[in-house]
Design a protein that fits this description.
Length: about 325
């Protein structure tokens, strides 16, 4: 090879190497995205289609919230699930398409819990539905992270929906005399419930029920008071398949599945809440039907099985509805 050819080849190689380094540098400097894809997940249940909707997450300092567990036991349970304080906690809602009705169970936090939640409405739209298509909304209980999404600004977010909840729950949270006599740190919770529900009440689109109730073909309410005065779980059945939507039957999977006696401080009646959890966990494990939790890691769907003196949650396998 002639001298000038060698010089040309060397120069070309150097330019090529520099270009590769520049590309690598440009790729490495791309900013971290720090977000997720739209939060919805679909499954079929007999002839029904269920869409889990993420409202987002909020950090929970569980060491300040849980009772009936020592600090050492709690640290061990969190570490066993590769978690540490504060624990990112999902807020989930569930949309049920029966073929004739579109039913939403819980609506998320809206603006009640800060900017990391309040995404249920946008995720509902991303999943292919419009809020005006929702026919009925079933509320497990009236804490702010379950009813806050009823509003879009000051107006109902679901303009054609009838909202349903236990009469015991309505009597507890929508009573101004109760709010006035409540401790100062509870008044905000009452106000949030009233703000969310009253526009539907005023429009004649709030309809309560008592205890266990058949709400429509394939969906029934099951009284599970304890977490709140009228806390309700919803049982969905189609073609021999069953899903039970737990609401706030439990909050911290890494702790309360292994030991259902562990309670959370904002239970209205912690003893009753623990009793309901033990009973409903045992039934789910014995019969193997689908379960879903408002605060299980999204999409919050799976099955329960017995494990020693407690239980294990087996999350839904990712797949295409069919």
């Amino acid at each position: 090879m002639k001298l000038k050819d060698r010089r040309f080849a060397a120069t070309a190689a150097a330019v090529f190497t520099a270009a590769l380094m520049l590309c690598a540098s440009a790729q490495a400097s791309a900013p971290l995205q720090k977000n997720q894809a739209p939060g919805y997940y679909r499954m079929t249940l007999g002839d029904f289609e269920v869409t889990a909707l993420s409202d987002g997450i909020f950090p929970m300092e569980v060491n300040k919230m849980l009772a009936n567990i020592s600090a050492k036991q709690l640290d061990s349970a969190l570490a066993g699930s590769f978690l540490k304080e504060p624990v990112d906690t999902s807020v989930n809602g569930f949309l049920i398409n029966t073929g004739s009705k579109l039913v939403l169970v819980d609506t998320g936090a809206g603006t009640n819990f800060g900017p990391t939640v309040g995404k249920l409405l946008s995720n509902l739209k991303a999943s292919g539905y419009k809020p005006e298509q929702v026919d009925e909304i079933y509320i497990t209980h009236m804490h702010g992270d379950h009813v806050g999404g009823l509003l879009a600004g000051a107006k109902p977010a679901f303009p054609n929906a009838v909202v349903r909840a236990s009469q015991s729950e309505a009597d507890f949270w929508l009573n101004k005399a109760h709010m006035d006599s409540a401790p100062a740190d509870m008044k905000g919770a009452y106000q949030a419930a009233m703000n969310a529900l009253n526009p539907y009440v005023s429009a004649g689109r709030f309809k309560s029920f008592d205890g266990d109730a058949e709400l429509m073909p394939g969906i029934r309410a099951l009284a599970a008071a304890g977490h709140t005065a009228g806390h309700t779980v919803y049982v969905v059945e189609s073609k021999g398949e069953k899903l039970v939507l737990w609401g706030d039957l439990m909050h911290v999977a890494s702790v309360q599945f292994a030991d259902p006696s562990v309670t959370i401080l904002f239970d209205t009646d912690s003893a009753a809440a623990a009793a309901q959890r033990k009973k409903i966990f045992a039934d789910a494990a014995a019969h193997g039907y689908w379960v879903a939790g408002a605060h299980l890691s999204f999409p919050g769907l799976g099955h329960l099985r017995a494990a020693g003196s407690g239980y294990e949650f087996v999350a839904a396998n990712y797949g295409v509805p069919h």
